[in-house]
Design goal:
Pfam families: AP_endonuc_2 (PF01261). With 300 residues, this protein is α/β, with parallel strands linked by helices. Helix content is 40%, strand content 16%. The protein has one domain: Alpha-Beta Barrel (TIM Barrel). It is built from eleven helices and ten strands.
Length: 300
């Protein structure tokens, strides 16, 4: 008998439709994304790259409401390990996204660290390991950002470990969590990125359960991942090679992750994200429909 996963609110994101940029000729129009995510049976979406969906709150709310959709979060990329020099530019962008996020009724801001190597060429932008001073800048900067986002916009900040960033592996995620205030900074656990970087999502949920504030659901193809690791492939090309795949075809196994999240006893967004930029425009919808059926079969 399938145990109902009634603490998980399932949604999807522009990422699952191959959307990585505000405007790109290889991406489906935003109206098609909204139509198809609703058609697939999801109730929740994320905003995706700022500017992809309409940025006028009244229009955006009308477009989502007409399709029975609600917004769970906005997303920003930051480079807070670079210290005070980047603060003003960071806040200018974050506040813009946070304002729209709040206007939709969403309650979360997903913060993704910047890449340490070029997402297309694999050229190093900066070292893959931070210095102690950079770690302090990252953790104190994230706390500062999260407090201001909470105080000015009422949003919870959840930091997203991500491939080819400085918060990626089990070691780096634990170091980040241990050095930040749980009252203001929590985690968006992306099961695919964490597996990509060698992490165990169930173990993380069981160890740092009180810090799990949000979930991204995805899987990686272990055979493609092995080639990616062997060749030192950057994340962007790895996605084009199919490193991310739909469940239940990859890892981590989804049922134990969902069960561990349910056992936390708190309401969590669990947003499906299958990185696949670029992709043919007709590819996302059937994948999204199959994934929603699979998750229903798991009790979600």
């Amino acid at each position: 008998m399938t145990v109902p996963l009634d603490r998980l609110r399932i949604g999807s994101a522009p990422d699952s439709w191959g959307v990585w940029f505000p405007d790109d000729s290889l991406q489906v129009p935003w109206s098609r994304f909204l139509d198809e995510v609703s058609q697939s049976g999801y109730d929740w979406i994320e905003l995706g790259p700022y500017g992809y969906l309409p940025t006028d709150p009244e229009r955006l709310n009308a477009e989502t409401a007409s399709r029975g959709l609600r917004v769970s979060a906005g997303t920003v990329f930051t480079a807070l390990h670079r210290g005070p020099a980047v603060w003003e530019d960071t806040w200018a962008h974050v506040s813009q996204v946070a304002e729209l996020t709040r206007a939709t009724g969403a309650g979360h801001l997903v913060v993704i660290p910047s890449f340490w190597r070029d997402d297309k060429t694999a050229e190093l932008i900066e070292p893959s390991e931070l210095t102690p001073e950079q770690w302090r800048a990252l953790t104190t900067g994230t706390e500062r950002l999260a407090r201001r986002v909470r105080d000015e916009f009422g949003l919870e900040t959840v930091v997203h470990p991500h491939a080819d960033t400085h918060i990626d592996s089990e070691e780096h995620v634990a170091r980040f969590l241990d050095a930040t205030d749980p009252a203001v900074v929590n985690l968006c656990l992306d099961t695919g990125h964490y597996a990509y970087c060698g992490g165990d999502s169930v173990k993380l949920i069981e160890t740092y359960g009180e810090r799990i504030g949000y979930l991204h659901l995805k899987q990686v193809d272990p055979e493609v991942l092995a080639r990616v690791r062997a060749n030192g492939t950057a994340f962007g090309p790895a996605v084009q090679q199919g490193v991310m795949c739909e469940p239940p075809l990859g890892v981590p196994e989804m049922e134990p992750v969902l069960a561990a999240a349910q056992q936390l006893g708190v309401d969590l967004f669990a947003i499906v994200e299958q990185d696949m930029y670029p992709c043919p425009p007709d590819q996302p919808l059937p994948i999204a429909q199959r994934t929603r059926r699979f998750l229903r079969g798991c009790g979600a």
